Amino acid sequence: MEMLIKQLSNIVEDKFEQCGFDRQYGMVTVSNRPDLCQFQCNGALVAAKKYRKAPIQIANAVLEELKKIDAFESVSVVAPGFININIKDSFLTGYINGMAADENCGSSKAEAPMTIIVDYGGANVAKPLHVGHLRAAIIGESIKRISRFLGHNVIGDVHLGDWGLQIGMVISELKRRKPELPYFDENYNGSYPEDAPFTIDELEEIYPAASKLAKSDENAMEEARKSTFELQNGRAGYIALWKHILNVSVADLKKNYGNLNVEFDLWKGESDCQEYIGEIVDYLKEHGYTYESQGALVIDVAEESDTYTVPPFIVLKSDGASLYSTTDLATIRQRIKDYNPDEIIYVVDKRQGLHFEQVFRCAKKTKIAGENLKFDFIGFGTMNGKDGKPFKTREGGVMRLQDLIEIIKDSVRGKLKESDSIDAEEIEEIASKVGLSALKYGDLSNQATKDYVFDIDRFASFEGNTGPYILYTVVRIKSILRKAQEQGFSVTGKVLEPFSGNERDLMLTLAKFNEAVELSFNDKAPNKICEYIYDLSNLLNKFYHDNRIISEENVEKKQSWINLIALTKNVLKTGLYLLGIEAPEKM
Questions:
Q1: Rounded to the nearest 10 degrees, what angle do helices 424-444 and 134-149 cross at?
Q2: Architecture of domain 402-419+448-578
Q3: Which of 189, 200, 208, 478 is least crowded, fewest Cβ atoms below 10 Å from its Cβ?
Q4: Topology (CATH level 3) of domain 119-160+268-384
C-alpha cells in the first residue's frame, strides 16, 4: 500500500501544480501541532521567494482547490502561510481496512529490490562471545530483517576472525600442552583424527592463557607468529588443527547467536578471501596504485577536501604480510564476484570508522568496487555500566554474552514468579522471551551511534519504554481476543469509523506503520521501529482503559473494536519481529 502521508502529498502536490506552482511544494507532513490539525503543508513559505508572492497568497490559492477534495474533513490556512489539514474519518478507516487485509500490514515491497550484504558478526573463533559482540549482532539482525521485509535480497554474513595471530597462539599453546599430538609431527603422513583434541570449554581457556603468555614472553609471541605463518602457508597438521578450531567454535557460536534470535546466511571468515589476496596485490601493482613507504606497500586514499588526516591504505607490511585492511579489500572482491551486491552494510564498532573509510576509498579508487556499489558503515557506540565505563563483570573482567543473557533472564524470572496467572513450568520459556526483549529492546531503542548505559532494572521493567512493556501490550490484546472468542466473536469484517478521539489517534498511528518501516530502512535505524511501537502501545493501552471492549453491548461497535485491536496486535508483532523479538502468549 502507498503510505497515507504520500497519498495526501499527491493530492496537495496536484493542487499546487494546478494553481501554477511547482508540485514539490505540496509535500504534506504530520502536524507538529496535533491540537490544531492532523497534517500540514508548509510549501507556500518556501515557494514565496521563487514566485515573489506572499506565502499567504499562495496558500489561499491552493486552499480553494483543496476545499473540493472529498477526503478532507477540513482545510484552513494560518499565517504566514501554513496549510492545515484534517482528513475524514471515512478516508482514514478505508486506509485502516486496507492494512487489515494486507499480509504485510500495508507495508509495500520495494519497486526495485536490491541485493544487500550485511556484515554484522565479527566474532573471533577460539574465543567466547562477550558483551562487545552484542550490538553488532542485534543491530545487524534487525537491519537485515527490515531490509528483507521490504523485499530486498539480503545476505547476512558473520565474517569470522579465523585466520589471524590468535589461531597461531592457540596452536602454539596446544603444542606446549600436548606435543605428542600428530599435528606437530612434521614427518607424519597419516590421516588426522576426525574429532578435535579439545572441547569448546577447553578451547576457551586455551586462548586467554596463550594470549597472556605471548604478551609477557617474547619467545612465546615469536612461536605464535611462526605458527600463524606456517598455518597460512599450508602446513598440513596446522590446517587440520585450524579446521578443528573452526568447527568447534562455529558450533558454539551458532548456539549462542541462536539464543539471541540472530541467524546468518553465510559463515565465512577471513580465511575464505585468502585466495584473492595475491590476485589483488598483483592487480594494484600492475595498475600503478601502489608505492613503497618504509618498506610497506601502500596506496594514498586522502582527498583534498579532507578536514582530518586519512593515512595511506597499507596493502602489505614491510615483511610482506597482509593486514586486516588487505583482508577486507579481498572480501569486497570476493563478495562482488559471488553476489554482485548493490550495497554492503558494515555493522561495526564506531571506533573502526577510519579503518573502513580507508577500505571503502581504496576499493573505489582502485575500481575494485564499481561506482554503483554503495558502502554503508553503521558504527555503533559502546554499552556502558552505570559508572559510564564499558560494561564488565563485578570482578572487572569482560562479561560473556551468555552470562549477560542469564542475568537479565533472572531479573525477569523474579518478576514473573510474583504473577498468579503463570504456572511454574511456563516461567522459564516466558522468562527467556521477555528477558531477550528487555536486552534487545534496551539496546535497539537507542540510536546506534550513541553510547548507552545498560540498566538491568530499567530494561526489565514492565512499565515505560521497554521491551517487556511492548510484550505486555501484545499479551493484553491476545487475552482480550481470547475472551471475545469465548463469547462467539472472531476477527472478521471491517473496522468502523472511530467513535472517539482516542480511537482516531490509534488509527492515525496505525496508518504510519509503513512510513516507520521505510524510515528505519533508509536510515538503517532500528530505533525508529522502537519509537513507533512504543507510541502505538501507549495509544492502545489508552484506548483499552477508555473502552470496555468485552462488556460493550453494541455488537457492531464491539466487533469493530475487536478488528481494530487485532490489527494493532499484528502491527506490534511485526514490529517486534523486525527487532528480532518474539512475544509470549501470557505474562
A1: 90
A2: Orthogonal Bundle (1.10)
A3: 189
A4: Rossmann fold (3.40.50)
C-alpha cell belonging to residue 68: 473540493
In 545-581, which positions are buried (b, 16+ CB within 10 angstroms) versus exposed (e)? eebebeeeeeeeebbbbbbbbbbbbbbbbbbbbbbbb
Strand partners, 72: 87
Distance from C-alpha of 523 to C-alpha of 507, rounded to nearest angstrom = 25
C-alpha to C-alpha distance for 254 and 247, rounded to whole angstroms:
11
Pairing, β 29-30 against β 39-41: antiparallel
Domain range list for the chain: 4-87, 119-160+268-384, 165-259, 402-419+448-578
**Listed residue (180, 186, 168, 185) closest to 222, CA to CA:** 168
Q: Which residue has the higher pLDDT, 330 or 322?
A: 330
DSSP character string of 356-380? HHHHHHHHHHTTSS-TT-EEEEEEE
Alpha carbons 38 and 32: distance in angstroms, whole number: 9
pLDDT tens-digit map of 440-498: 999 999 999 999 998 888 999 999 999 999 999 999 999 999 999 999 999 988 999 99
Q: What is the DSSP secondary-structure string of 416-447?
A: HTT-TTS-HHHHHHHHHHHHHHHHHHHHHTS-
The amino acid sitting at 140 is G
Long-range contacts of 286-292 (CB under 8 A, 24+ apart): 287/366, 289/365, 289/366, 290/315
Short-list 423, 575, 557, 454, CA closest to 106:
575
* Coil, helix or strand at residue 531: helix
pLDDT tens digits for 238-248? Answer: 999 999 999 99
Between vectors from CA 210 to CA 241 and to CA 276, what angle results, nearest 5°? 50
Record: fold of 4-87: Gyrase A; domain 2 (3.30.1360)
For the purposes of burial, counting CB atoms within 10 Å of the CB of 583, is it exposed (0-12), middle (13-18) or buried (19 or more)?
buried
DSSP string across 173-186: HHHHH-TTSGGG-T
Gyration radius (Cα) of the chain, Å: 29
Interatomic CA distance for residues 140 and 518, integer angstroms: 17
- Give the span between the Cα atoms of 493 and 356, in whole angstroms: 53
Residue type, 107: S
Q: What mean pLDDT is reported for the chain? A: 94
What residues pair up with 453 in beta bridges, in sequence order?
A: 384
Residue from 360, 277, 276 nearest 315 by CA: 277
